[in-house]
Backbone:
């Protein structure tokens, strides 16, 4: 192991033991770095556009959707910027040295920000389903409920990731030339001072694995189920609305010529019957307005946000 001038060390050069190792550099460059840079640019651009849109739109300003999407865009932007900064550090573009805290800092920030973004997206999708199924009950105090939900998710995500900041959680950061990747080695008691502790390397491994499952697998599974239920419900609703509209059109009384309406009472009866028949369709329209909120564009936005997070957030 040869120490370097920066914050990471490098593992000595390995001879190519397997034929596939000859393509490690090409795979790392074209299969990881270049797609990651494109995803970084795409994700950061989308987040900035979302922040501007939800704060400048009259339909969403100071609404629950504005709080949700703004928080998602802000935390996901922080995650992407931190990833880019540490990428520059690893490849010596930035001359910075965090020593032992480099791995802990990166892991804590990326885990908290990605967990907050994904769980808020899952909460937003689940709430959208609840609004459709229980429209009148879920529309009350939606903004206050959104703020409480956001604060709770942020606090819980910070709390469960605090162990990453424990001194000595990671011992050092290595650059493996053989596999072309960055390795964070766990620090053990005999290497960091001989202090007895119940947090062993195995516990750290399972803790890190559980955090990855908590911030990726579980929310993505909930997002998948919620989006499927959301689109099935909307599909069913549109079919019901089309049938109701067809029934309304077919049941409309044929308009008689004006010459046949020869007295005021008959004209009044005809107008009353037509008005009562027409009111049945606006009732469905008002229910649609209640169920879909201020704008129908919210549901596609939720689906697009879920898709972007699934693509850009990876369990690194």
Residues:
């Amino acid at each position: 192991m040869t120490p370097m001038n920066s914050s990471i060390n490098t593992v000595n050069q390995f001879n190519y033991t397997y034929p596939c190792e000859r393509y490690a550099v090409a795979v790392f460059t074209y299969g990881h770095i270049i797609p990651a840079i494109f995803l970084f640019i795409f994700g950061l651009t989308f987040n900035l556009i979302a922040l501007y849109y939800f704060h400048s739109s009259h339909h969403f300003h100071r609404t629950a959707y504005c709080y949700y999407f703004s928080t998602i865009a802000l935390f996901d932007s922080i995650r992407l910027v931190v990833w880019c900064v540490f990428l520059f550090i690893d490849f010596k573009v930035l001359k910075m040295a965090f020593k032992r805290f480099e791995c802990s800092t990166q892991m804590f920030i990326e885990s908290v920000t990605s967990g907050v973004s994904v769980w808020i997206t899952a909460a937003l999708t689940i709430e959208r389903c609840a609004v459709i199924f229980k429209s009148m009950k879920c529309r009350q105090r939606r903004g206050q409920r959104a703020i409480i939900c956001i604060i709770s998710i942020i606090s819980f995500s910070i709390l469960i990731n605090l162990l990453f900041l424990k001194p000595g959680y990671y011992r050092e950061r290595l650059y493996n030339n053989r596999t072309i990747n960055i390795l964070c080695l766990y620090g053990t008691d005999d290497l960091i001072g001989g202090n007895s502790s119940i947090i062993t390397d195995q516990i750290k491994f399972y803790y890190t694995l559980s955090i990855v499952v908590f911030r990726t697998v579980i929310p993505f599974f909930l997002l998948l189920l919620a989006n499927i239920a959301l689109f099935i419900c909307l599909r069913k609703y549109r079919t019901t609305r089309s049938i109701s509209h067809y029934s309304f059109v077919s049941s409309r009384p044929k308009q008689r010529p004006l010459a046949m309406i020869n007295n005021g009472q008959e004209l009044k009866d005809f107008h009353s019957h037509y008005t009562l028949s027409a009111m049945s369709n606006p009732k469905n329209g008002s229910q649609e307005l209640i169920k879909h909120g201020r704008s129908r564009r919210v549901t596609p936005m939720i689906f697009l946000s879920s898709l972007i997070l699934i693509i850009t957030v990876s369990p690194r």
